[in-house]
Write a structure and sequence with these properties.
heterodimer, A: ABC transporter involved in vitamin B12 uptake, BtuC, B: 356 residues, ABC transporter involved in vitamin B12 uptake, BtuC, two-stranded antiparallel ribbon, 2 strands, 2% strand
């Protein structure tokens, strides 16, 4: 276009034709404005994502209370939530279903999903490894080993009996891994931490299988445990587990600015005044609390944390102050939705939430990967 | 990292015609030591058992100068098992080293290539579903072969899903993890719904074992493994430049896309050979390259040393499982119980050295 003008107006001696000068001005104004508008665009995208997730979570929560082996109407759900057991037998039954079955598993799915999402995002942030998962610190293997041991030694067979053993196993494994990785000057460098976690996890998994192969009752406990489910525990377990998770979430939130700086590189972070050892310790404690408490209550739900962290990074960008809350909400939505799906597809039987997360989530995730939606950590 | 790079740049070069190497005495020494260790453990494993045979007799029998009795026990009874251990360990070690090099991620292992997950899901399905079709398949082709087919199918699925104008490290591991998650979920669900006696049999298959190997199976595995290793040996020279990134590799004259594709396919097939010979033995492929790296003080997973270390680990674990333990455990369990802590020990030792 400009070329044409110049060719035509050439003899008149103009250096810049009108059109082109106009173009130059337009370009310079967009250059000046662009960063600002991109930042607003990014912020709008984050806020919209978070708001949409909150709405989806609320809707899924209501659906989760209503759907199951016996489907309930909205009025019945309302009644079941707020009415005291009365004389009407049908209504009493509904109240019982809602208050002792549906509400506990809905609450647990939300709490556990949030914890897994947050800890998945945190561990990817600290290890800077895109395949780091919540089980990386040996937490899942520690819990599994505790479960088969409890079954072997005390004959426990129900989730509410071995929950605290599982939590203890997860905590001990996490502490041992972090302790071993921080010996000497290496001070919990991400790679050492990840590999030490793998080493301990490998060892504990071998012990778990050894016990399970020699004792059939333990094997039986292990196979149900491994599938990962949010049903089967009541509020007597959910409240204490939630307390640990709330502490973990609070610790996690305090470390988010430090993760942003750590991802610039250790030298840079130190130069900007980050206490690296402290922020890593707080982060690892938070991950252990979140993943350990969740694993204790639900069993190992392996893929969720990894998947959710990548999707959250796609939605919000690499800023961990936004990424981690988004991952938490996303985790809650996915786990809750998968639990509902597991109840619907094989009614009146149930598919464990952990199984559904992988069966439904993984192909979806793989499609996003294939389309090149994710960047490395 | 910087310090070692400086040290290595002052290491003498070695030129043989068109090829040139950096002469690393320590790495060569450790690799030879590992080869000797592999041979020693191999002979020890053959010698130990209900009818113990001394080390000198074992070696002379292998060389074809033993007595009739020894020859029967060694060649007919114990050799297939030891050889299977050697093949499985070596194949897993090399496969793991290739995978970690291409993914440029020390947490990657051939498990994420889908082989073990797919094989496990198929095997557990065949064991737990006692229906007509499943029984027919098991009777006609055997459990191992059917599982291998499932594993290779899954491995190739991962390979082609990850292929989009070449293989990209991040896409490969993320796709691989997704596919593995699906197969693991299927396995977990099959185990939950099955009868507990079938579960015990399935679980035993899932950890891998070297029991009851026959010469026929071992010969097939051996030739496949040797052919694949020959291909790897031809291409492996170009693996090192890949660690510097695609641009540098291309600048050095490496057709990186082709090299990566061929090597990765070899890694998938090597893992398949291992699964066919012993079932899905876990963790060897993850641990061996990392341990070999630290023993040889080489900056990337060394192929030869990883293979040898895998073999030492597997045969050694089998030896321990058969002779030293009061209860019989599958080799996969003992391998993990030894390999995991050894990796942690090496990490801690390195950290403490740094602190001094």
């Amino acid at each position: 276009m400009g070329c044409l003008h110049e060719a035509r107006d050439g003899p008149s001696g103009r250096v810049f034709p009108v059109n082109q000068r106009d173009n130059v001005r337009r370009i310079s104004t967009t250059v000046g404005k662009r960063p600002a508008s991109e930042a607003t665009e990014a912020r709008r995208r984050r806020v919209v994502s978070l708001a949409a997730l909150v709405v989806i979570l609320l809707v899924t929560g209501v659906v989760s209370v209503a759907v199951g082996a016996r489907a309930l109407s909205p009025a019945e759900v309302w009644h079941g939530l707020f009415a005291a057991p009365g004389s009407d037998q049908r209504l009493t039954e509904i109240t019982l279903i809602v208050q002792t079955v549906r509400v506990p598993r809905t609450v647990l799915a939300i709490v556990a999903g949030t914890a897994l999402g947050v800890s998945g995002a945190l561990i990817q942030g600290y290890t800077r490894n895109p395949i780091a998962d919540t089980g990386l610190l040996g937490v899942n293997s520690g819990a599994s080993f505790a479960v088969v041991s409890a079954s072997l030694l005390f004959g426990f067979a129900n989730p509410y009996q071995y929950v605290w053993f599982a939590f203890l196993g997860a905590a001990v494994a996490g502490v041992v891994v972090f302790g071993l990785a921080s010996l000497g000057r290496g001070a919990g460098s991400p790679l050492t931490l990840a590999l030490a976690g793998q080493g301990i996890a490998v060892f504990l998994a071998a012990m778990t299988v050894a016990v399970a192969l020699s004792d059939q009752a333990s094997l039986n406990a292990l196979r149900f445990w491994n599938a990962g489910s949010v049903s089967g525990v009541g509020f007597d377990v959910i409240w204490p587990v939630s307390a640990f998770i709330v502490v973990g979430l609070a610790l996690a939130l305090t470390t988010l600015p430090a993760i942003n700086l750590l991802n610039l590189g250790e030298e840079m972070a130190r130069g900007l005044g980050v206490n690296i050892a402290l922020s890593r310790t707080v982060g690892i404690v938070a991950i252990t609390l979140l993943a350990g408490a969740t694993t204790a209550a639900c069993g190992p739900i392996a893929f969720l944390g990894l998947m959710v962290a990548h999707v959250a990074r796609y939605l919000t960008g690499p800023d961990y102050r936004w990424l981690v809350p988004c991952a938490g909400l996303l985790g809650a939505v996915v786990l809750l939705a998968c639990d509902v799906m597991g109840r619907v597809v094989t009614r009146p039987g149930e598919l464990q939430a952990g199984v559904v997360v992988a069966l439904v989530g993984a192909p979806f995730f793989a499609a996003l990967v294939w389309r090149g939606k994710f960047k490395t950590v | 990292m910087n310090k070692t790079a400086v040290k290595q740049s002052s290491a003498p070069g070695l030129r043989l015609g068109h090829a040139s190497f950096v002469w690393r005495p320590w790495m060569v020494f450790v690799t030879l030591l590992l080869a000797a260790a592999a041979f020693l453990v191999f002979c020890l494993s053959i010698g130990r058992g209900d009818f113990p045979i001394g080390l000198p007799q074992v070696i002379s029998t292998i060389l074809g100068r033993g007595e009739r009795v020894d020859e029967f026990v060694i060649m007919d009874l114990r050799m297939p098992r030891a050889l299977a251990g050697l093949i499985v360990g070596g194949a897993l070690g090399v496969s793991g080293a290739i995978t970690q090099s291409i993914a440029r991620n020390p947490l990657a292992s051939p498990d994420i290539l889908g082989i073990t997950g797919g094989a496990s899901a198929v095997a557990v399905f065949l064991v737990t579903v006692s229906g007509g079709a499943a029984a027919t398949i098991v009777n006609s082709v055997g459990l191992s072969a059917a599982a291998l087919a499932g594993g290779l199918g899954t491995g190739l699925l991962v390979y082609f899903l990850a292929w989009r104008r070449g293989i990209d490290g991040l896409r490969l591991i993320l796709i691989g993890i997704s596919v593995s998650a699906v197969t693991e979920a299927i396995t977990a669900w099959l185990l939950v719904t099955a009868d507990i006696r079938d579960v015990a049999r399935a679980q035993a298959w899932l950890v891998g074992s070297l029991d009851n190997r026959s010469w026929d199976e071992v010969w097939v595995a051996l030739w496949c493994a040797l052919a694949l290793l020959a291909v790897v040996a031809c291409v492996a020279f170009h693996l090192r430049p890949l660690h510097f990134g695609d641009e540098v590799a291309a600048g050095l004259g490496v057709r990186y896309s082709m090299v990566r594709a061929v090597l990765l396919l070899c890694a998938v097939l090597l893992a398949g050979v291992a699964v066919s010979a012993a079932g899905p033995v876990p963790f060897v492929a993850l641990v061996a390259p990392q341990v070999a790296m630290r023993l040889t003080r080489y900056p990337t997973p060394p192929l030869v040393a990883s293979g040898l270390l895998g073999a030492v680990l597997l045969i050694g674990a089998d030896l321990v499982a058969r002779t030293a333990l009061p209860i019989t455990l599958p080799v996969g369990v003992v391998t993990a119980a030894i390999g995991g802590p050894f990796l942690v020990y090496l990490l801690v030792r390195a950290n403490l050295r740094k602190g001094r």
